Amino acid sequence: MQTAAYDYHLPEELIAQHPGPQRDASRLLVVHRANGSLVHKHFPNLLDLLREGDVLVLNDSRVFNARLRGANARSSGEFELLLLNENSINDWWAMTRPGKRARIGTEIHLHTPLGEKTNITARVLDTNEEGHRRLQFSGTNNILNDLPHIGEVPLPPYIRRDSKNFSTDLERYQTIYANTAGSVAAPTAGLHFTEPFLEKIRAKNIYVHYVTLHVGLGTFAPVKTDRVADHTMHSEKFFVPKETSDAVNLACEQNRRVIAVGTTSVRVLESVASKHNGKIVEGSGETNIFIYPPYNFRVVDALLTNFHLPRSTLLMLVSAFAAPTQTTGRELVLRAYTEAIREKYRFYSYGDAMFIL
Questions:
Q1: What pLDDT does residue 320 have?
Q2: Low-confidence stretches of the chain (pLDDT beneath 70)
Q3: How does strand 353-356 pair with strand 302-306?
Q4: E strand spans, the chain
Q5: Could you give the percent of the chain with pLDDT greater than 70?
Q6: pLDDT tens for residues 180-231?
Q7: What strands, in cross-sheet order, belong to the sheet with 55-59?
Q8: Three-state secondary-structure class, residue 242
């Protein structure tokens, strides 16, 4: 299938620039795969759509302050850095902007979001095929320990801020159950949950479990190849605890539903299941699974997700889930998106939600 088939037009005013007043007060578009019906709800109505015995799987990765700012030690030219992957202590791959000026050997003096100078320097060691730079940090025992003070929330580029005040984002661009730091983008489907709402879910005898997948920027990057199948997927680190693997396997054996909160949870579950004959096993690893139509889902029975960017691998995954083993899911998803645009739903990270069952 051609990548252009996953394009759509979104009015800019529907891109949510700020979180709503309450996490769980967003709208919810319910997509019924069996008959293609679309039903408008609000997020608290999700409780009515869940059944006793369901297993809800959420991604508990924590977003860290991965965006840094600094200046060229020689020219004072400004740089923006986005940390991506840690090779070892103070040795990272990162995106740099402007990239062309980050030549090998360039030294960048870091400063705080308010422009205050620090003693920390990043030196460019290498570049890779993706244009990322390998950085060696000095002036710190471990740059990770300094990020809460000198780093910024790595908001996606479609969210704009006029100031460096990220106080609201520090709280709201993070799930309430975030645990292990490692993501440079939030698993946004989980942003809608509050602790009281999770307690209501548990009280209904619905099992809540977690996986960890550290979200990288490649998740949101548009597919640039003409053919979907030619796209090379990035790798992301994941971890599945024993409690989750046991709960999911038992649910599958007893024909109870496994409901993934977010495409990241889907990628973990389906990646593990594809390597273990449909079973979920405890452990850690990396996945570069690329799910697009047609795809046979082994584990996930329902999906809670947000609205995704055109031509993104996430939109392709959702389209695959809308019609497993078939190629018709794209039409259903784009019809749902057209309806959401007509009804002025809020899109992307801070936007509204969709439940596909």
A1: 98
A2: 163-164, 220
A3: antiparallel
A4: 27-31, 38-42, 55-59, 61-63, 67-72, 78-88, 91-97, 107-111, 117-127, 133-138, 180-183, 207-213, 236-240, 258-261, 283-287, 302-306, 353-356
A5: 99
A6: 999 999 999 999 999 999 999 999 999 999 999 999 987 767 899 999 999 9
A7: 38-42, 27-31, 353-356, 302-306, 258-261, 55-59, 207-213, 236-240, 283-287
A8: helix
Predicted local distance difference test score (pLDDT) of residue 164: 67
Cβ atoms of 135 and 92 closer than 8 Å: yes
| DSSP string across 88-117 | ETTEEEEEEESSTT--TT-EEEEE-TT--E
* CATH number for the segment(s) 67-150: 2.40.10.240
Half-sphere exposure at residue 150, Cβ-oriented, CA atoms within 13 angstroms: 25
End-to-end CA distance of the chain: give it in Å, rounded.
24
Task: Return the closest-CA partner of residue 288 out of 239, 238, 236, 240.
Answer: 236
Rounded-to-integer distance, Cα 248 and Cα 280, Å: 7
Q: Which CATH class is domain 3-63+171-356?
A: alpha beta
Q: How many residues does the chain have?
A: 357
Query: According to the model, what pLDDT value does residue 129 have?
Result: 86
pLDDT tens digits, residue range 235-254? 999 999 999 999 999 999 99
Torsion of CA 173, 175, 176, 179, to 10 degrees: -110
- How far is Cα 31 from Cα 41, in angstroms, rounded to an integer? 11
Contacts of 351 (CB under 8 A, 6+ apart): 14, 15, 16, 26, 306, 307, 345
The DSSP code sequence of 301-346 is -EEEEE---TTBHHHHHHHHHHSTTSS-HHHHHHHHHHHHHHTT--
Residue boundaries of the structural domains of the chain: 3-63+171-356, 67-150
Q: Is 291 left (phi over 0), alpha (psi -120 to 50) or beta?
A: beta
Q: What are residue 336's phi and psi, to 5 degrees?
A: -65, -40
Q: What pLDDT does residue 328 have?
A: 96
